[in-house]
Amino acid sequence: MSIEPPSGVNRDRLETKIPSGRKFYFLRLLTIPERIAFAFLVILVLVVTLVPMFLPYTAEQQNFDDGLLLPPGSANHILGTDQLARDLLSRLLLGARVSLSIALGSVAIGLVVGAIIGITAGYRGGWMNTTLMRVMDSLQAFPTMVLALVIAAGLGPSYQSTVIAISVVMVPGFARVSRTLTLRERDKDYVLASRVAGAKGLRIATTQVMPNIWAPLAAQAAVAFAHAIPGEAALSFLGLGVQPPTPSWGNMMADGYAYISLSPWPIIAPAVALALTVASVSVFADGLQRISGEEH
User: Which superfamily is assigned to 31-36+86-295 in CATH?
Assistant: First the structure.
């Protein structure tokens, strides 16, 4: 049954604010630094997705004939080689796939689980709200990095445990944001109209509440992504994340740190890539939060 809001309800709340045929209208609302950050992220995704297929070396291929710890600009190796004569450019790009996929997977899981908890707590209220939020408070009582280290150590170092560890520490943040947004929406006229029409709680939450809180949650997800990337790097640097020979920015920096006195490039390359990516995501996330705040 189609649920129509009563007369007087602001229908703009139920419809997208982006004009039809202008999918990237939001880019016009970004400042110049935010547009530059967005352009960098788009280029990064394209390079990480497409370029590795055309690289002459794999991440694990050793080129002892070329030399160890070669500097950038060496023959056949644009960024040089590491301590095992592996091409740094190949490892940097393939490592970016691993690091970014872990960060993306962690944010996605944290967002879905946190949103379910937050919307349930905010919409149902009562004892369920109290119980769920106390559990979230318990998780937030631990410093996020310490909790991630404990989870990763308990599960054992691997790709999957890194995703789980980072996603768990992100759930409380998403839960609190979605709960706050749900509390703001649940008593509005369009939700009350759905209840009067006989819609169930799950239907109201998914078809009425969720479409009106997705924009702030998307902005929160962008901020969380900026924290997930260095989180993965930290776990891998400490040996609790992705394990060699699979490259990630974190374990590349760990490997390069041991030979920094001989050549700084194996640690500089992933460190610069990490810093630029996190800075770009942070700037773009600030733009999304600002736009989301203006719309709401």
Answer: MetI-like (1.10.3720.10)
